[in-house]
Specification:
about 575 residues; mainly alpha; Serine Threonine Protein Phosphatase 5, Tetratricopeptide repeat; 2 domains
Length: about 575
């Protein structure tokens, strides 16, 4: 399967198509990083070469067993350094621009994302606002700092995952790599949303759940994880089946004889129940108010039939496959590895990890993100972590049962690390990143009107912030073709103004004001552009309209005074 994926990545790098957008990222990378990472993964498929690297994996696996604290610290530091060296400068994923902009302009989060739960608001608005307000870091720096800490937590949890499974040597390293090196590492490079923390919480739920089953510990940790998740994001409800399963299995294996009466055990039971009681009304209200649009494809009929049809309509099936391959590159190997009992592993491990993954996986086809699957893949990042836990378990147990094929652990490690590094590198390079976004628009398969409009809109906004005025104006012009909202028309007019195309700007303002005649900023912009063009009749009309909307507006009065002076000067005899 690793060979098939490598061949697919190489072939798609030469194809002018975005059908396999999760596998063709090296097409949009500098050759050194794109093909360099690919060649390392390819070399690891040769047993002779992989065997040379095997002693290093043996040493790393043994270090996890003998010095777990040092091993966890080492992997944590490596993960933090990796994401810190790869800041997301493309800023295309999900609500990246919106979330960061909220902190930059001190906009109250309740106005832009009222569905956010308290911990989400604290981590992604209150805390970064305080840090940037104190002059310690800017809004992006605060998000990157938090992301690095969370990547470190994921690195430490990956080691704890291998230890919870009691894996040794190369099998342990491969399991660590599968969990750590998913596409969701991109959540920690500046993206400011609760889905980043959900990745860490899902990994922690898997680790603490396994510890509770194997040795009886971890029950309180699992309860705290679920409680934190419920205060963070409503998708944490997906952790509840695994929590309840752990409670049942723990009782059967460890809870008899009064063990459940211990204070820590009672706390482990109480913490998530109290959090659920407190947060569930808020979560239900948010779901009823906001989530109907996420589960209802545009224009589809109501009911189960419409939901199923919408789940797999158009390019969604292939996009869903792309999502899985982006988030957990080896997920396609699960049918090959199997989910049966391996190496004497208790079947409860498999059952727990399935209970953790299935709730997230089951709803995945029915979620319709506002900006499409290609851009809003962050909605599914926690799903990727849950699947990587399952894949890591299957890989670890398979390698544990086949010591003669230990060299495969090298291939697995590099096979997941290479695409993860490629994804991180892709978001660092603005020009190549924007080229990939444009390829999504222009190349097959065809995209919906909403996807095209949203993507052109993003290109306009991002180029505007980069002060690429001509590119921004062209992008907004295309966005207007698909979604001529007053906001996009206004940004198009501003981009035209900044690029020096004043006639184009005036035409954009006219279109905008036809749709929204009470927009004061539109009349102000039209006044300014018309005055600069010397069209004083139009400038006077626009200024008077602004005064009609806002009597006494200082800008309008100033423009009228300036226009009067210019007209008197023009009429004055030489």
């Amino acid at each position: 399967m690793l060979l098939v994926l490598l061949v697919a990545r190489a072939a798609l790098a030469f194809m002018p198509s975005m059908v396999g957008w999760s596998l063709n990222v090296q097409r949009f990378l500098a050759p050194a990083i794109g093909w360099g990472a690919w060649l390392l993964a390819a070399a690891a498929l040769a047993p002779a070469l992989a065997n040379r690297a095997l002693p290093a994996l043996e040493w790393m696996g043994e270090a996890m067993r003998r010095r777990p604290g040092m091993a966890m610290a080492a992997w944590a530091i490596a993960a933090a350094v990796l994401v810190w060296l790869a800041p997301d400068r493309v800023r295309f994923v999900g609500d990246f621009l919106l979330r960061q902009g909220t902190v930059e302009v001190r906009e109250q989060p309740g106005l832009l994302y009222p569905q956010a739960l308290p911990l989400d608001v604290f981590l992604h608005y209150t805390l970064p606002s305080a840090l940037s307000g104190a002059g310690l870091v800017d809004a992006n720096g605060a998000s990157r700092l938090l992301g690095a800490l969370e990547a470190a937590a994921l690195g430490a949890l990956a080691v704890a995952f291998a230890r919870a499974l009691e894996l040794r040597g190369p099998a342990a390293v491969a399991a660590v790599a599968v969990l750590l090196f998913g596409g969701y590492l991109g959540m920690f490079t500046g993206f400011s949303k609760a889905f980043a923390e959900m990745c860490v919480l899902v990994a922690a739920a898997g680790v603490f759940g396994l510890q509770a089953l194997r040795r009886g510990g971890g029950l309180l940790g699992l309860g705290v994880v679920v409680a934190v998740g419920l205060a963070l994001h409503r998708s944490a409800l997906g952790l509840l089946p695994a929590l309840m399963l752990v409670w049942v299995l723990w009782w059967r294996r460890h809870g008899r004889g009064g063990a459940w009466r211990r204070p820590l055990t009672l706390a482990a039971l109480a913490v998530p129940l109290v959090a659920l009681a407190v947060m569930l009304p808020r979560i239900i209200a948010v779901m009823r108010r906001w989530d109907s649009i996420h589960f209802t494809p545009g224009g589809s009929e109501a009911g189960l039939g419409g939901a199923i049809a919408g789940a797999f309509a158009g390019s969604r099936p292939i996009d869903l496959v792309n999502l899985l391959l982006l988030l957990s590159p080896l997920v396609v190997a699960l049918p090959v590895l199997g989910l049966g009992r391996r190496g004497g592993a208790a079947p409860e491990e498999r059952t727990l990890l399935l209970a953790l993954a299935l709730p997230f996986l089951a709803v995945m086809p029915f979620i319709h993100p506002a900006q499409g699957l290609f851009r809003d893949w962050d909605d599914f990042a926690a799903t990727g972590v849950a699947l990587s836990l399952l894949v890591g378990w299957a890989v670890g147990r398979t390698l544990e049962a086949a010591p003669r094929h230990a060299w495969v652990a090298v291939a697995v490690t590099l096979g997941v690390a290479a695409p993860a590094v490629q994804w991180l590198a892709h978001h660092v390079d603005v020009d190549r990143g924007l080229a990939r976004v444009e390829a999504f628009i222009h190349e097959p398969p065809p995209r919906t009107e909403d996807e095209l409009g949203n993507t052109w809109d993003y290109l306009g906004i991002r180029n505007f912030r980069l002060e690429r005025w001509d590119a921004a104006a062209r992008a907004f012009a295309r966005a207007v073709e698909h979604a001529p909202s007053p906001r996009i028309l206004q940004e198009w007019a501003l981009a035209q103004t900044m690029s020096g195309n004043l006639h184009g700007a005036m035409a954009a303002y006219h279109r905008m004001l036809e749709k929204d005649p009470r927009n004061a900023l539109g009349w102000l912009g039209l006044t300014s552009v018309a005055a600069r063009l010397g069209d004083y009749v139009e400038a006077r009309r626009a200024a008077n309209e602004l005064l009609r909307l806002q009597p006494g507006n200082a800008d309008a009065l100033r423009f009228l005074t300036d226009i009067d002076q210019l007209e008197r000067a023009r009429r004055a005899p030489p």
